[in-house]
Structure formats: C-alpha cells, structure tokens
Amino acid sequence: MNEQKFTVTQPTRIHFGVDTVNDLAAMVRDLGGSRVFLVIDPGVAAAGLQERVTASLEVEQVPFTVYDQVAPEPGLKLADQGAGLALEAGCDCVVGVGGGSAMDVAKAVSILLTNGGKAEDYIGLGKIGKSGVPKIMIPTTAGTGAEVTFTAVFINEETSSKAGMNGDPLYPDAAILDPALTLSAPPHVTAATGIDALTHALEAYVSSQAHAISDMYALEAVDLIAGNLGKAYARGDNLEARSAVLLGSLLAGKALATAGVGLVHAMAYPLGGMHQIPHGLANAVLLPYVMAYNLMGAPERFATLAEMFGVDTSAMTTREAAEASVEAVWRLNDDVGIPKSLEELGIPRDDIPEMARIALTVARPVANNPRRPQLEEVMAVYEAALDGWEQ
User: What is the rounded distance in angstroms from the CA atom of residue 285 to the CA atom of residue 345?
Assistant: First the structure.
C-alpha cells in the first residue's frame, strides 16, 4: 500500500432515487443552462419516457430541442449532426437520456459546442482543450455507467473501426439516476446491460491499475448486481431489484473510471465495429471466456470475486475458488438468457484474425489486463467463445 499511487477524479453531482427526474429543470438552471438540447434514445422515446423526463422542463418553462436520431452503436457523424442542431437552436445545456449510446452522443455534443471541429478530432486521450457546456446524464438502463465516466465511444463510419474520446472534460456535470425509469426495460435489455455493468466492475477489480478506492466501488457493484440482476430480469416491476442494479451500475462506472477495464472491452470493440453487435451484449458474451483466460494473472482476486457471488470457498484452493468465479458468471449469464457463444451472434470464424488484431490496438484496456495478451492467445479466446462453453 505504501508504494501505491493513484489519482481519482469524481466531478459528477449524483442524484439517485425514485422521482429524482423531477429535479431536471432545477438542475439545468443550477448549472447555468437556459435552453436544453435533449439527446434521447429513440427506443426510450417510444416507450413513453420522454414525457417523464421533459415534464419538469415544461412546468418550469425551460425550452428544449429533442434529438432522437441515436443508433445503438453511434457513429461520429451523429455527434457532428447533433452539435450542428444544438448550435442552430442556441442550446447551452445538453441532457443525455437512455443507454450508453445516447449519453456518449450527448457528451460529444457538449464538447463540440465549445471546442468546435468534428467529433473525429477528439478521438484518443487528452485531445479536448475546453470544458463543454453543462451536461446532465439520465440513464434509463442499468449498465454502461456512462453517467460518471470520461469516455464517449463511437464507430468511424469511414473505417468501421470503434474508438473513444477520453478526457476529464467529458465527465458529466450531473447525473440523475431514477430507478423508476428503468422499469420499462425489457428482459433482454436488462440482461445485456446488467452483465455489461458487471463486466465493468469485474475488469476494474482485476485491472493492473486497481487501488483501494476502485476496489471499494467494484466489489460493492459486484455484490449488488450479482444479487439482484436475476430478480430484475424475472420481474421487471421489482423496483427494489431495479434500484440495486442501477446503483451497482453507477458504482461499476466509478470503478471503471478510476481503474479502467481490460481485455473483454478490447475484444468487444471489433464486434461492434465490424458486426454492429451492441457493446453490452458483446461484453456479456465474452466475459466468462476472458475471465477463464485471465485467471492465472490474478488468482487471488478472482477467488475474492467468487465469494462476492456467494460461493463458499473455504474448502477450495485459490485456483479452485478463482475458477468458481468463472462458473458463477456463466450461471448468471445462463439465467438471464445471454447467448452462450459468438456463433449465436452470427460471427464468422474467418473474421477472428482481424478481430484479434484490432482488439490488441485498444491500448489502454490491453495494458490494464491482468494477463498480457498475445495475438495467438486472443484468437484462441475468440475461438473458444465461438465454439461455446463446455459444461
């Protein structure tokens, strides 16, 4: 501990609780905003949640412009288009509503309004010079944690590659986490986003950059998600379970922001860029396979994760307990209907070499991983994930 060094940046003001969405207008004004650019997932709008979000804006007579052209895997041009519309409408505050895609577009629009240029100009780390206009995130799924991270991920339409903007100016100024907004998420979305959040927590916990604060967030997130995701999947109207998973997703996002993620995310990027597999689903399918590959890099940590899933490890060796964490994740995936293999997602075997090559270019997650991956090893993990889990 006396040799450990870490930096934690946590600027986002968090409002958590049922009906906190009613505080939106007051929050906009508190941050100095007067005209809102509302980036909303079209599925969320279709589910009738837009009115829930905008109700306080209408009551308080805060004008807003709606941008609902968000794709599940957004391209850079969506951010550019949104920024153009926001500038034309004179918006000085951006609100992102939905899953990670809507929130990432909202973050990028905020930055483009003050920095100018195109979204492509800011792909990478530390390329954003100025803070954006005030930005507020309202997740309607419990998964990405984007409401408390400094990343916005996009597909480059010209190259079909996937990459992110990264930098402290992307941290949202505020986040509203209202568990009631997640009640309408269908089971398959609940499952994929929930395992996505679990992936954030697990990868942050075994990351080479993990530290005392990230561990605190990660382990509590694992406990909340492992204990409640099945309940939220089985009964979508279980508000207590929904609240627990949403809180777990928030804490997993904080763990991600402070310790980073690993090879699961690196391997998920080409699944999104090349095959348009939603990010959360890609992470969920890959998670147990990458965990099995990583076990030898952090066996004690994986053994602790097994305990967080309720496994009695008292009579196990460290290796046995570590392997039990993989089995626990596999069982949870199976319980909530996550596809068992990449074959079920229609991924062609011939694409594995190229996907592995691309995965290894996702530098930060690869560097954070507890086991330093080689090209042949990444290909082998993809092969295992394509073939499916042997029970």
Answer: 9
pLDDT tens readout for residues 338-351 = 999 999 999 999 99
For residue 1, what pLDDT band results from cuts at 50, 70 and 90?
low
Instruction: Determine the Cα–Cα distance for residues 76 and 78; give it in Å rounded to an integer.
Output: 5
What is d(CA 32, CA 381) in angstroms, rounded to the nearest whole number?
49
Q: Is the CB of residue 274 less than 8 Å from the CB of residue 355?
A: yes
Closest CA to 291 of 195, 211, 358, 212: 195
Burial 18-34 (b: 16+ CB within 10 A, else e): eebbebbbebbeebebe
Q: What is the pTM of this model?
A: 0.95
Tell me the mean pLDDT in the region 221-238.
Answer: 98
Q: Give one DSSP letter per residue of 188-254, joined into a string.
A: HHHHHHHHHHHHHHHHHHHSTT--HHHHHHHHHHHHHHHHHHHHHHH-TT-HHHHHHHHHHHHHHHH
Assigned token pair, 78: 């969506």
Which tokens in the block code for residue 69?
Answer: 């052209």
Q: Name the residue type at position 197.
A: A
Q: Which domains does the chain have, with CATH numbers?
A: 13-182 (3.40.50.1970), 187-387 (1.20.1090.10)
Helix or strand (DSSP H, E) at 44: helix 42-46
User: What tens digit of pLDDT does each residue of 153-170 get?
Assistant: 999 888 888 889 999 999
The span from the CA of 85 to the CA of 351, in Å, is 38
Cα three-residue angle 169-170-173, rounded to 5 degrees: 85
Three-class secondary structure assignment of 271-282? HHHHHCCCHHHH
